[in-house]
Amino acid sequence: MLSVKKLLLYSGIIIIVAMLCGITSHFGSDRARYLSKSELTREIVGKTGIHNSLDSSNRSYNIKYNEDSSFKMDTIQNGGVIGITTGEYKIVTHPIHHYGMIDVTYENVFESPHIKSTFNMNHPNSVFKTMKNELGPFKLIINDNRSAHILDYKCGFGLQHKFITMYDS
Questions:
Q1: How many Å apart are CA 110 and CA 119, to the nearest integer?
Q2: Which of 133, 102, 104, 108 is nearest to 118 (CA)?
Q3: Which domains does the chain have, with CATH numbers?
Q4: How many CA atoms lie within 13 A of 77 on its CB side?
Q5: Which of 156, 157, 130, 147 is nearest to 50 (CA)?
Q6: How far is CA 9 from CA 1, 18, 141, 151, in A?
Q7: Are 104 and 118 in contact (CB under 8 A)?
Q8: Which of 133, 71, 62, 64 is nearest to 103 (CA)?
Q9: In this predicted model, what pLDDT tens digit does every residue of 50-78 receive, in sequence order?
Q10: 69: alpha, beta or left, given left = phi > 0 and alpha = psi -120 to 50?
């Protein structure tokens, strides 16, 4: 059986080798920093984002961030559109930390049947209460894909980490 000292030594060697080879987690790399307002604008505006539901494996959301600051989110279930959410968005700078965030104002919201969703009227932090939400901060996880970029972000009401894949529209 390996001693604790040897385990720590081997772990340290593995981490050093991984860093030298560039095999580090995105959380430990340069990519992990939060995007500024201008960087977030470049990654979002005029693009379509797709993310999977946290409550249902057969549900996803396609969000089109239009250049006129409007957005349209199609709720997709089993391959078909079952609802549409629309509104306005504004990319802003956090007043203290100076990273980019998205300030969302909903006009029409398609209600989720899942009680744990903030798009459900009965959720304690439901978006229906204020018709507003704040998304961010954002981290660029992968930007070397030929057609897409992956962003990690937090949702103001849900407080979960979410991932969205952004495609040029």
A1: 7
A2: 133
A3: 1-32 (no CATH), 33-168 (2.40.128)
A4: 10
A5: 147
A6: 15, 14, 30, 34
A7: no
A8: 133
A9: 999 888 899 999 999 999 999 999 999 99
A10: left
